[in-house]
UniProtKB/TrEMBL annotation:
Residues 27-39 have a biased composition (Basic and acidic residues). It comes from Oryctes borbonicus. Residues 1-52 are annotated as: Disordered. Coiled coil: none annotated. Residues 58-125 form the Ubiquitin-like domain. This is Ubiquitin.
Length: 281
């Protein structure tokens, strides 16, 4: 009887062992799966960290109007964002900025991809709104004359402000004008015109960049089309093949930049290009 009881006990122990083994195997498999998942998550995290470009703040020198400015910028910052940063520092609208470093920098580039490193010198070309308005600045006396002429509805070419320019005669190198005609803008700049000081003026229409380049002997202003509020023009008496044209660069009429001897056949095309064809002239 004792031996039978011992055999039963042994069978029971054997069954318990058999029952424990599968559970033990499952636990080991689960541990292996958890270990692999942990390793994968760790690997994914490392991959993400490797994909992210490390950001670094570097100091560069921006050269503008012969002055140098120390500026700190993140290496992952885009050139377009850097321009906005410079707008706050120098007052030059980002849309009127050109940045040069081993060539013209594009807005979509980053500081790092442009090859800019610590201590690099970046050239800034552009004009502040004050610079643009200074080009068209008028004296108090001229404002008074304009108000008088406006009230009297006197033709532009008869007003004292304009007459002193027109009395000098038609410029020798002016482009041929055609009255009562409308032509598209030519593929080359309009030249031979003068401003109120008698200085030569050249207009270049950069339609692909939505800019009007206003050039004199001393400087070139790259004006966004949207910065020109209005354009007024009027034929010159006894020379109707040419117009007086005023580009309004600010909120008031006093900010008009006057151009004389503009070929009449291009007036409508100029207004269409700058203000849009929806304007009523």
């Amino acid at each position: 009887m004792g031996s039978v009881g011992t055999e039963s006990e042994n069978q029971a122990v054997s069954l318990e062992d058999n029952c424990e083994k599968p559970n033990s195997s499952v636990e080991k498999v689960e541990e292996q799966i958890e270990s692999k998942v942990t390793e994968q998550e760790s690997g994914d995290s490392t991959a993400i960290q490797q994909d992210e470009e490390p950001s670094e703040l570097i100091d560069v020198k921006v050269v503008y109007n012969k002055n140098k400015y120390d500026v700190s910028v993140a290496t992952i910052a885009k050139i377009g964002d850097f321009k906005k940063q410079l707008q706050g520092l120098l007052g030059v609208p980002d849309s009127m900025q050109k940045l040069m470093y081993k060539g013209l920098l594009q807005d979509s580039q980053t500081i790092k991809s442009s090859g800019i490193t610590k201590g690099a010198k970046i050239m800034l070309v552009g004009s502040t709104l004050n610079d643009v308005l200074e080009v068209s600045s008028v004296t108090k006396e001229e404002v008074v004359e304009l108000e008088k002429a406006s009230n009297a509805k006197e033709p532009l070419c008869k007003q004292k402000l304009h007459k002193k320019v027109l009395d000098k005669g038609v410029p020798e190198d002016v482009m041929p004008g055609i009255k009562n005609s409308h032509e598209s803008l030519p593929p080359f700049p309009l030249s031979g015109m003068v401003n109120k000081h008698g200085g030569k003026v050249r207009l270049t229409f950069k339609l692909e960049s939505d800019q009007l380049w206003l050039s004199t002997k001393d400087r070139t202003e790259k004006l966004p089309m949207g910065s020109i509020k209005n354009i007024v023009s009027e034929p010159i008496l006894e020379h109707e093949e040419y117009h007086i044209m005023g580009l309004q660069l600010g909120p008031t009429e006093a900010s008009r930049y006057w151009i004389y001897w503009v070929p009449a056949q291009f007036i409508e095309a100029i207004k269409n290009a700058v203000l849009g064809t929806w304007q009523i002239f």
